[in-house]
Write a structure and sequence with these properties.
The protein has 19 helices and no strands. The radius of gyration is 19 Å and the shape is globular.
Length: 335
């Protein structure tokens, strides 16, 4: 039951959304037979990936991740895969700095894995510390050039404004793994952001159904028409409450259709989710209408005022990791 359930998680990553309930049934049956930390890890991973892949993005899913992580750690408090999932959940619920601390702490305790290095890069990107995020993510992609390592590096590069290198990496990932979701999704999304509508549609046409795909198609329609009728539905609200990327996508969508005030309302949720990527917010074309509001400018001024202390703390936490892993420190200033 356990092995079949884990295989179904792999199918989810290939866009087969129907594999989620099948995996849940198999792994829950396995837990009844063997309530081990390994099976708890499988269930925690399942619900984390359902959220991460946009299959079922709900606060309830994040509660299930916490439940199975805590259950597994009861019997094996130092079980590394569950400690990684614990850090991942902190990122999803908006505790970005805590995720950075946990990830860096595991590395400094010699609890090394590609997954924890990847997570440190993701959390630094989410915080908007692009020089450190790119340094860590490039190191990861160089020593373990798998699909997700390269996609994460490309996301950091694109958000920091290094579009050509980012898009080349996304395209390479897509060509090597056309069955996987994220490279195709970000090619479609980023082409749209760059105003390349036909190229965006080429990639979007092959995307698996799901909330992320639906939001992207609404964005495409609105971005080309400049304004479009749109109502925030319950699924979008639940996703925004449970996932930091979904929260930003909702802000972008509201801004793109011209509803700057609703965009501003959800932008506060984005900040509550730990986003501190002001340099990205300042150029993101989906946020053009939001940036015109007084409310955005007030939030930006407050965010920029607190940023030096956040960046100093990140440097304090991550600098020993760079030394431990032999990563050259970035020369670009952190903003």
């Amino acid at each position: 039951f356990y092995l079949r359930g884990i295989a179904k998680i792999g199918e989810m990553e290939e866009g087969k959304t129907g594999a989620y309930p099948e995996a849940a049934g198999l792994l829950e049956r396995a837990l009844q037979i063997d309530p081990s930390s390994e099976v708890c890890e499988g269930l925690a991973t399942l619900h984390y990936q359902a959220n991460n892949l946009g299959i079922e993005i709900t606060p309830d899913n994040l509660d299930k991740v916490k439940f199975y992580v805590d259950k597994g750690l009861e019997s094996r408090p130092d079980y590394f895969p569950l400690l990684v999932l614990q850090a991942k959940r902190e990122l999803l619920v908006g505790n970005t700095q805590q995720c950075i601390r946990l990830s860096a702490g595991l590395i400094m305790r010699d609890r090394l894995s590609f997954g924890i290095i990847h997570l440190l890069g993701v959390s630094l990107r989410h915080s908007g510390n692009y020089p450190l995020a790119i340094a860590v993510s490039r190191f990861h992609a160089n020593i373990d050039p798998d699909y997700y390592a390269r996609v994460n590096l490309a996301r950091a590069l694109f958000q920091s404004g290094q579009h050509d290198e980012a898009m080349a990496i996304f395209e390479e990932c897509f060509q090597q793994h056309p069955e996987k979701y994220f490279a195709r999704f970000f090619l479609a999304r980023n082409m749209l952001m760059l105003g390349k509508f036909q190229e965006s549609q080429k990639y979007a046409s092959g995307l698996a159904d799901g909330l992320n795909t639906r939001v992207l198609r609404l964005q495409a329609a609105a971005f080309r028409a400049k304004t479009s009728p749109f109502t925030v539905d319950g699924e979008m609200k639940a996703a925004a409450a449970a996932d930091f990327d979904s929260a930003l996508q909702l802000v972008e969508l509201c801004s793109t259709v011209g509803d700057a005030q609703q965009s501003l309302q959800y932008f506060q949720l984005v900040l509550d989710k730990g986003w501190r990527a002001w340099s990205y917010f300042d150029w993101n074309p989906f946020l053009a209408n939001l940036r015109k509001t007084d409310g955005y400018r007030r939030l930006r001024d407050a965010g920029m005022a607190e940023l030096p202390a956040i960046r100093a703390e990140e440097q304090r936490i991550v600098r020993p990791v760079l030394v431990r892993l032999g990563i050259p420190p970035p020369t670009a200033p952190t903003r």
